[in-house]
Design brief:
Layout: E1 4-7, E2 13-17, H1 20-23, H2 51-55, H3 59-67, H4 75-78, H5 82-96, E3 100-104, H6 107-110, H7 121-136, E4 140-146, H8 152-158, H9 165-181, E5 187-191, H10 201-205, H11 215-240, E6 245-251, E7 255-257, H12 262-284, H13 291-297, H14 308-314, E8 319-323, E9 328-330, E10 339-342, E11 345-348, E12 354-355, E13 361-362, H15 364-378, E14 382-386, H16 403-422, E15 426-432, E16 452-454, E17 466-468, H17 470-481, E18 483-486
Parallel strand pairs: 2-3, 2-15, 3-4, 4-5, 5-6, 6-8, 7-9, 8-14, 14-15
Antiparallel strand pairs: 1-18, 10-11, 12-13, 16-17
Helix pairs in contact: 5-7, 9-11, 11-14, 15-16
Length: 495
């Protein structure tokens, strides 16, 4: 066997990804307002895989969070202090060789309540400094406009994204940041995992279930408003930043049938079709006809304003980005079967896959399948903007030997290469949690994704010192050679 280097396309955007609400901290600094993320608490004692209880936010929790003038008990308020330590982090990213860094702009740093007449200059200046630091290190920003952090004021005052007026507030926010950073940011994303509003309505859409008689109606109406807001963001991005590229973002939930029973196959097919509904609207510019049956059966009526359909049709995205962590299995009858969860969704356990310490099934071949499915359907450039392994890391003699993380990424990179050989146009890859940060799903720290260790525990104790892990140097070499050392054996079946 040889150790040849199998190359990725020239100009491939190797990078990492973080979100403002999980990394920045500084929740009450420089005029920042409260966001939905500032309500999230770490619920000790819950099962790692009980994502529904971890993500449940009720009226009492919101009221308590509004009264709590502290970060204690609210991990996302403290993050990992990226707000103050970004120059140090950027130097490490430069050392690693990152070509791009995916970040989000906290809406509440720019408009603390969301509906102010004028933006908060201190918030705008922070991102000026951040993007300037990235440019200094030749790191291309990939910026998400909305990443699970809408202003809490808009939730309480208007019912979150269920109210049409929030479209106007978001468009104003988008136009302000497009104008401010037009010379600094070329790549943009609209809504992080826009499909997630159907799984966690509060985090994604500011929908508090107790405040609505028909939550599903509110959720799908809010989703329509996000579709419209996304189309308008695309419109203004293209007008205000010539040459910029703006994409959508999907949670890729590739589902396999548990068996060849036609009922299992149909169920898996319907799940995959529904997963593509969200990209259909943003890429093809219209609601797919199959969704009409779901709306009819659930008695959901989407209120549209005159011109909405034209906006969706005309202002479609330039590329498709997505997260991929695991695949799912569907069966018509799951009674008595072992179940697992991953990325806020559960399902039947796939007996052919390993499971992470948090119960997420590890399926490298699934990323190839996902890439092919998306490209076959849309023929648009694809960008993997979240992928990685959440795991416990042990610090021994000041070092973290995370071979399990290296193995995870190596297997997924091999399948990405296979997909490129299949003909998929893949722009780049940003590993989730390039440095350790607060978990979205459980608000804990010990679930670590990073190539860089951050010294902090679940209760916020620690120095916050940054330490490269073994995987840091492995990823550094992958980026340096823009490829992967492989043996002569093929990785997966060929057509």
């Amino acid at each position: 066997m040889s150790n040849q280097i199998r190359k990725f396309p020239e100009g491939f955007l190797w990078g990492g990804a973080i979100a403002a609400n999980q990394a920045e901290g500084a929740w009450n600094v420089d005029g920042k307002g409260l966001s939905t993320a500032d309500v999230a608490i770490f619920k000790k004692g819950l099962s790692k895989s009980d994502y529904k209880k971890h993500n449940k936010v009720d009226e009492e929790q919101i009221q308590q969070a509004m009264r709590a003038n502290t970060a204690e008990g609210y991990p996302k308020r403290r993050g990992v202090d990226f707000y103050h330590r970004y120059p140090e982090d950027m130097a490490l990213f430069k050392e690693m060789g990152l070509k791009t860094l995916r970040v989000s702009i906290a809406w509440t740093r720019i408009f603390p309540n969301g509906d102010e007449e004028e933006p908060n200059e201190a918030g705008l200046l922070f991102y000026d400094r951040l993007f300037d630091e990235m440019k200094k290190h030749d790191i291309e920003p990939l910026v998400t406009l909305s990443h699970y952090e809408m202003p809490l004021y808009l939730v309480n005052q208007y019912g979150g994204w269920s109210h049409r007026i929030v479209v106007d507030f978001f468009v104003k926010f988008s136009r302000v940041v497009f104008d401010r950073y037009k010379d600094k940011v070329k790549y943009w994303l609209t809504f992080n995992e826009i499909d997630s509003i159907v799984r966690h309505p509060f985090t994604s859409g500011g929908i508090v279930s107790e405040r609505f008689d028909n939550v599903e109606q509110a959720v799908y109406q809010a989703l329509h408003h996000q579709f419209v807001a996304s189309a308008l963001a695309v419109k203004y991005c293209h007008e205000m930043i010539p040459g910029a590229k703006i994409g959508c973002m999907l949670t890729k939930l590739t589902t396999y049938p548990y068996s060849c029973n036609p009922k299992d196959v149909l169920k898996a097919s319907k799940n995959n079709q529904f997963n593509m509904f969200f990209t259909d609207v943003q890429v093809r510019g219209e609601y797919p006809r199959f969704i009409n049956r779901l709306f009819k059966e659930k008695n959901i009526h989407i209120e549209k304003q005159l011109g909405d359909d034209e906006l969706l049709k005309v202002h479609t995205v330039d590329f498709i980005s997505f997260s991929y962590y695991n695949s799912l299995v569907a069966t018509e009858n799951s009674e008595g079967m072992e179940t697992v969860s991953g990325n806020t969704i559960g399902g039947v356990k796939n007996p052919y896959l390993e499971v992470s310490e948090w119960g997420w099934q590890i399926d490298p071949i699934g990323i190839r399948i996902s890439l092919n499915d998306l490209y076959d359907r849309y023929q648009l450039p694809l960008f993997i903007v979240e992928n990685g392994l959440g795991a416990y890391d042990k610090v021994e003699d000041g070092k973290i030997n995370d071979d399990y993380r290296i193995s995870y990424h190596e297997q997924h990179f091999q399948q990405m290469l296979e997909a490129i050989e299949d003909g998929v146009e893949l722009m780049g890859y940003t590993s989730w949690g390039i440095l350790d940060l607060i978990s979205y799903s459980s608000s804990e720290m010990e679930k670590r994704y990073g190539f860089i260790h951050v010294d902090q525990d679940n209760d916020g104790n620690g120095t916050l010192n940054r330490t490269p892990k073994k995987s840091f140097y492995w990823y550094q070499e992958v980026i340096r050679q823009n490829g992967l050392k492989i043996n002569d054996e093929p990785n997966g079946d060929t057509f």
